[in-house]
Design goal:
- The complex is a heterodimer of chains A (391) and B (290).
- Chain A has 391 residues and is an alpha/beta fold.
- Chain A contains 14 helices and 13 strands.
- In chain A, helix 7 links the parallel strand 5 and strand 6.
- Chain B is of the alpha+beta class and 290 residues long.
- Helices cover 43% and strands 18% of the residues of chain B.
- A three-stranded antiparallel beta sheet of chain B has the order 1-2-3. A three-stranded mixed beta sheet of chain B has the order 6-7-8, covered by helices on one side. Chain B has a two-stranded antiparallel ribbon with strand order 4-5.
- Classes of the chains: A alpha/beta (391), B alpha+beta (290).
- The interface between A and B is medium-sized, with 28 and 31 residues.
- The structure holds pyridoxal-5'-phosphate and FE2/S2 (inorganic) cluster.
- Pyridoxal-5'-phosphate binds next to helix 4 of chain A.
Chain lengths: 391, 290
């Protein structure tokens, strides 16, 4: 069965051109970029090229790019660094809807005695800017807010938030893992100090990330050892993956327009069709500014895992905000922070498209999903009670 | 992705006996929308009102909840009410060729609905306690003190599940009942309940033997460590290892959370008391680091 892959916020296919770019750096050009000989030097110059390509996509300078092993590492490194830079400041601000890469860390730091404020969101997932303004003070070491939400695609006004943070001298970090490659970002005129990205969300392989650190921003490394990455991230460079990420960023720049026209049009068509054919459905974050590729739809009275497994019978890959899929027992913390009722949160399905998505694939989902929801509602005691006759 | 058996998949994709029975004799309802799963079970009895001749269900929940409900209806058809009451949640899981441990609560929900239906039919009083907690209640029909506020689960119910499934860790209890799976605030209390159940089981069955050969003594020490002591430590994420037995001297080393724990001295003392209680009065426990 051919997969219809609509789970690109979880991970993406490695672009063939990206794979070709990295291929020689395993068995042929396997030198260590730090070595003095010509053989390592070849790799070094290719790593430099990759650094330039990443910098270009971000509107950054090449020496502002630190390669890491993943988005999670970048997130951890950013927060740790800020706390070491400001040992006297004991306050961290983040939001209730962050990825666990940030949230788990902040909650651990709370156990260690830091004050942690998690800013809330409204019913469509928009950040409470007034709460943010009130929370920042001269004890705040770092404000870390995601650029775009992985579950709903809702975009935060990051530049505005950064300005608020800077007004009290705090460092500002953004987890931009979901935003990079989907919406244009320009660090040059920005107030953002640090920014995380992850290769596998933009058609590079898994296990490569970047932490952007603005020139002049004080930084303390998480990993110490050798002099790689100007001593800001020790460990022999994952050269092949870095080279792949460079290529992926170059392509992301080229496809940015398509992402916001072609991909967005498919996403819009999908959600509109489902909203008209399936009663008692709603778009999570529908009223907010969102990524062009993401839609999270809540189907009342049914449970997400069951929907996903039935979709899977048609090769359709999506993900869910339900508790049962993740192994936890509560529905998504993002949907709960938005106040999405439990009746909807359990039945929320996220579709995330990419430039590989086709119109025919969208047609298949539009055709197959409504009967699946109807079948599960027929089976559900609540579906029957609430939807008499109209499932 | 969950590793479901082909039988689970079959019962999920082609659930048997979905629907309702308008003139059902017994109906059992457990769970709620808020909890993420719920089951309504309908039973029809024969003219003697003894044998189940038809069973139907409606389920809101994940694949394993639907499969467990479907399996349950197949299992109880043709059984007398007493035979049906003997069906345990493990029987449901076995019928399905097993469930992932994190999904065992689905089989528990099935067994619960069955019990509620039959108890109600027999006119046995099933008190409904009011629920102030966030989620509504998963298993409303067990009297007792609410332990898990998030899922509305009582100590009586938890103890029953711990006992019938021989659970030894808080994580297992969460997998089987959901209790502890949300805010986690009730986990310490769950650990206490596990310790209580294990303690009661131990107290019931054994007393110290009169005279022991050396060989028998060594065996018994090992047995007590395995059966009575290690499960208690597991409940707190700790463990111990038996290093040596030399006459009455028992050397143990602490592992996992117990290793380096400030109160390991107390734990060693607890082990000693337990061994003196159940094996021989002169036992001395020594902690070694290995
Ligand atoms: C918003 C966000 N931050 C961080 C991460 C973690 O990235 P990685 O998988 O590279 O560690 C993800 C990916 O799941 C994400 O969506
Ligand atoms: S009280 Fe049990 S999980 Fe919250």
């Amino acid at each position: 069965m051919k997969e219809i892959y609509l789970d690109n916020n979880a991970t993406t296919k490695v672009d063939e051109a990206v794979f070709e770019e990295m291929r020689p750096y395993f068995c042929e050009l396997y030198g260590n970029p730090s070595s003095m000989h010509f053989f390592g030097g070849q790799v070094q110059s290719k790593v430099n090229e990759a650094r330039n390509r990443v910098a270009e996509l971000l509107g950054a300078l090449p020496d502002e790019i630190i390669f890491t092993a993943c988005g999670t590492e970048s997130d951890n490194a950013a927060i740790r660094s800020a706390l070491e830079v400001f040992p006297d400041r004991r306050h961290i601000i983040t939001s209730r809807v962050e990825h666990p890469a940030i949230l788990t860390q902040c909650r651990n730091l709370r156990q260690k005695g830091y004050r942690v404020t998690e800013i809330g969101v409204d019913g469509v997932g928009r950040l409470d800017m007034e709460e943010l303004k009130a929370a920042v003070d001269t004890d705040t070491a770092v404000v870390s807010l995601m650029w775009a939400n992985n579950e709903t695609g809702v975009i935060f006004p990051i530049e505005e938030a950064a300005t608020i943070a800077k007004s009290k001298g705090a460092l500002f970090h953004s987890d931009a893992v979901q935003a990079i490659g989907k919406i244009p970002i320009n660090m040059a005129p920005s107030n953002i100090d640090m920014l995380s990205l992850s290769g596998h969300k933009l058609h590079a392989p898994k296990g490569i990330g970047v932490l952007y650190v603005r020139r002049g921003t004080p930084f303390r490394p998480l990993l110490v050892g050798g002099h790689q990455e100007k001593s800001r991230r020790a460990g022999t460079e994952n050269a092949a993956a870095i080279i792949a990420l460079g290529k992926a960023c170059q392509l992301a720049g080229q496809f940015m327009e398509d992402e916001n026209t072609i991909v967005k049009a498919m996403r819009d068509r999908l959600q509109e069709a489902l909203m008209t054919t399936v009663p008692h459905a709603r778009i999570n974050g529908g009223g907010a500014e969102r990524l062009p590729n993401t839609t999270s739809i809540a189907f009342e009275f049914v449970e997400g895992e069951a929907i996903l497994l039935l979709l899977s019978e048609f090769g359709i890959c999506a993900s869910s905000g339900s508790a049962c899929t993740s192994g936890s027992l509560e529905p998504s913390h993002v949907l709960r922070a938005m106040g999405v009722p439990f009746t909807c949160a359990h039945g929320s399905i996220r579709f995330s498209l990419s430039r590989y998505t086709t119109d025919a694939e969208i047609d298949t989902v539009i055709r197959e999903l409504p009967p699946i929801i109807a079948k599960l509602r027929q089976m559900s005691p609540f579906g029957r009670e609430h939807l008499k006759g109209q499932v | 992705m969950w590793d479901y058996t082909p039988i689970v998949k079959d019962h999920f994709l082609n659930p048997r006996n979905v629907g309702d029975i308008p003139d059902a004799d017994a109906i059992g309802e457990v769970g709620s929308l808020a909890c993420g799963d719920a089951l309504k079970l309908y039973l029809k009895l024969d003219d003697n009102k003894d044998k189940i001749i038809d069973a139907k269900f409606q389920t809101f929940g994940c694949a394993s909840a639907i499969a467990s409900s479907s399996a349950l209806t197949e299992m109880v058809k043709g059984k007398t009410l007493d035979e049906a009451l003997a069906v345990s949640n493990q029987d449901i899981a076995d019928f399905l060729g097993g469930l992932p441990e994190e999904k065992m609560h689905c089989s528990v929900m099935g067994q619960e609905a069955l019990e509620v239906a039959i108890f109600k039919y027999r006119g046995m009083d099933i008190p409904q306690h009011d629920s102030e907690h966030d989620h509504g209640h998963a298993y409303p029909d067990y009297e007792g003190e609410i332990v898990c506020k998030c899922f509305g689960i009582t100590d009586t119910f938890l103890k029953k599940v711990i006992e019938t499934n021989a659970l030894t860790t808080a994580e297992q209890v969460t997998n089987f009942t959901k209790a502890g799976g949300a805010c986690g605030g009730c986990i310490p209390k769950i650990k206490e309940l596990i310790a209580q159940v294990l303690g009661e089981a131990a107290a019931q069955t054994r007393t110290r033997p009169e005279k022991l050969s050396n060989m028998k003594k060594m065996q018994l020490i090992q047995e007590v460590l395995e059966r009575d002591i290690r499960p208690l430590l597991w409940a707190d994420g700790g463990d111990l290892e038996l290093i040596d037995i030399d006459g009455a001297k028992v050397q143990i080393a602490f592992r996992k959370a117990c290793a380096g724990c400030a109160s390991s001295g107390n734990t060693a003392r607890m082990v000693e008391l337990k061994l003196r209680d159940l094996v021989a009065e002169d036992i001395v426990v020594e902690e070694v680091s290995q």
